[in-house]
User: Fold these one by one.
Assistant:
Number 1:
Amino acid sequence: MIYLWLKAGHIIFVIFWMAGLFMLPRLFVYHQETAPDSPENDLWVDRERKLLKKINETIEKIDDDDYGFCEACGVEIGIRRLEARPTATLCVDCKTLAELKEKQLGG
Ligand SMILES: [Zn+2]
């Protein structure tokens, strides 16, 4: 029972955290006073769109009770990692591996 409350608390924390991630770039844009039609603004809008997509995917995962598990190997993603990056879909090992592969393909 306590575990359920902890889990619910964590999900609420994650949603607030993600909302923070979503809002911060916006505040930053206002702070910079980027012109609405400038390339910088397009970049921010693009980033926001990608982040929003990730947030939606993460919320779907929470709904499916599938949140917090690695998409590649199924291992539970550590709570520390999720706190740092709530939209993470891979565990540290798989993420490192994916980054290595990306580097090999890119280089
Ligand atoms: Zn993994």
Number 2:
Amino acid sequence: MHHSLFGEVARPRIRWGGTVLFRSGLLEALESLLVFAFRKKIMPTYADLVKPELLLQPVYQPGKPIEYVARELGLDPSTIVKLASNENPLGASPKAIAAGKAAMDSIQLYPDGGCYDLKQSLAKSLELDPEQFIIGNGSNEVLELLGHAFVGEGDEVVMGQGAFIVYKLVTLLFGGVPVEVPTVDHRHDLLGMAAAVTDRTKLVFLASPDNPSGSSNTKEEVLELIEALPEHVVFVLDEAYSEYLDDPVDLRGLIAKGSKVFCTRTFSKIYGLAGLRIGYGYGDPELVSLLNRAREPFNANAVAQAAAIAALEDRSFVEKCRGENADGVSFFEERFEPLGIEYIKTYANFVTINVGNGVAAFEAMQDDGVIVRPLAPYGMGEWVRVSIGTKVENARALASLTSFLNKRSG
Ligand SMILES: Cc1ncc(COP(=O)(O)O)c(C=O)c1O
């Protein structure tokens, strides 16, 4: 008898000439190997079939949803504070929510694939032509469309080290080569990035303010970089957090003059519509129409389009959010100094802090019901990123953070 998955069975026998032989373990191993090799040949797995670059593709790690943490730790979801994804703690404009709800009444219809009304609103707001806008399922999709349009096998894409990870993911997805330029004091080195450009470079990505550092480059630095780029390179300025700046760089003039620059923006941050997934890019109409060829026809849903239009119009809500965010930033920065906590000066809606061990801080704070983002995936293992929350949330995050740091040093 021998053991198999199905319990004890008679050891299989094989005949050799007139002699009956019991199959040895060695024979069985050999047989399994042959079966495995045969199966591989005629029955490949999905991993054998997909494009090889997909197997090398790193997986994006999003901020942990409240419900996951509540389930894992047996906590009441309403007591959990999520400061992990740079969302708007004040929610969305009530006007945007009302517009989204109204759009639900016609939800049986496909959305306007051309996003006519939203493009009209954006054009009015940014004083550009509607044909200069492409709308995405989040600005993330617009970044991916740039990959579709420009990046092929072996093409280089220049970005700062530790920049928003989607630039690297998009590059790798299309078989490109991410060229990461070291930062200086947590700021992107734009002249270094210009120097990293080669004949194979297709795109240069920069977020200013940057995520996850929160640092920002000056207007002069950005313009100097653009000036230094050759004609075969498209410069992409990711303006996901530009609404938080007092005086953001404005590339509309350069776009009008024909410089190869393109900007992306989102409704996920200051407009508080992250759950609806809506963002956009703007640039030269020729580039926009080329990007549109790679776009799925109904990529921006009807509720998101309606809410985005109303959100754009509610300037007083945006101003209120800017003000509250600035207060939250001051709250943290003023307390970090006396506590001797190292942080990066932020220009966005989050603050990035050196806690010695990002994962340990993340876990300890999570036990307190505060979800933050450890930055190991960005090569910043000692750091966590904490989104600015409401006053109450900020106070809870600071208390949890200081308790973690005290325990570490104590
Ligand atoms: C720098 C940057 N760009 C783009 C995005 C993507 O935003 P969304 O796809 O929600 O528009 C984010 C989101 O965190 C970001 O931090």
